[in-house]
Amino acid sequence: MPGLMTMALAVGLFFAAPLFTLIFSRLLFEAPLPDALKPSLLILVAPFAVGYSAYTVTAGRTDMFAEALYMLMLFMLAVLLGQLRNLSLCCPFRVSWWAVSFPLAACSIAALRFASAEPGIFTDAVAIGLLGVATLVIGGLLGRTLLGIGSGELRTLSA
Q1: Where are the alpha helices (DSSP H) in 30-118?
Q2: pTM for the whole thing?
Q3: Are the C-beta atoms of 83 and 27 separated by less than 8 Å?
Q4: In angstroms, what CA-CA distances link 125 with 21, 51, 115?
Q5: How far is Cα 154 from Cα 146, in angstroms, rounded to an integer?
Q6: What local confidence, expressed as pLDDT, does residue 158 receive?
Q7: What is the pLDDT of residues 58-87, one digit of tens each?
Q8: What is the per-residue burial (b if ≥16 Cβ within 10 Å, else e) of 105-133?
Q9: I want to staple 103 with a disulfide (CB 3.0 to 4.6 A). Which of 46, 110, 112, 151 is the partner?
Q10: d(CA 45, CA 80)
Q11: Phi, psi angle pair for 137, to nearest 5°
């Protein structure tokens, strides 16, 4: 099983770098994303969060490479959350807003893993904070989606 885990990690990291580069260059050099697609920007954080978790499980420890993946995750999360802070003002709720749930959950898992590997007040606070944010956001998305289903606007939410 360790061989399969190593292969999956290698393939994931191999494809994450060019994919990230393609998406980032599209954001820099092409027309801005439509408002309805802005929540999907947070997916750029996922390769670092999932990469950190996969690497630490495969390697069995948190070393400098794992810590670098974690710090990149925190940096990208800070940059992108800053970009998405006014999301509810710029675009109405759509099903595409669920695109923020997976990256936030992956970040909170990575932060919890890092806090258990490197205990400290700061690492614990980051882990608890990210877990709280992920829980609130996913709960809010669920509530807003159920409200849309209840009011019959599901068809317009997916447009």
Answers
A1: 46-59, 64-84, 87-90, 101-117
A2: 0.86
A3: no
A4: 31, 21, 9
A5: 9
A6: 64
A7: 888 899 999 999 999 999 999 888 777 777
A8: bbbbbbbbbbbeeeeeeebbebbeebbee
A9: 46
A10: 8
A11: -65, -45
Summarize pLDDT for 98-154 with one digit per residue, the tens: 888 999 999 999 999 999 999 999 999 999 999 999 999 999 989 988 888 888 776
Residue environment code for 29-63, b if the CB has 16+ CB neighbours within 10 A, otherwise e: eeeeeeeeebbbbbbbbbbbbbbbbbbbebeeebe
46, 77 Cβ separation under 8 angstroms: no
Q: Which two tokens stand for residue 18?
A: 């060019």
Q: What integer best gives the mean pLDDT of the chain?
A: 86
Residue 1 has pLDDT above 70, yes or no: no
What are the distances in angstroms from CA 109 to CA 31, 75, 83, 102? 33, 16, 22, 11
Domains (range + CATH), the chain: 2-157 (1.50.10.150)
Q: Which two tokens stand for residue 132?
A: 């709280």
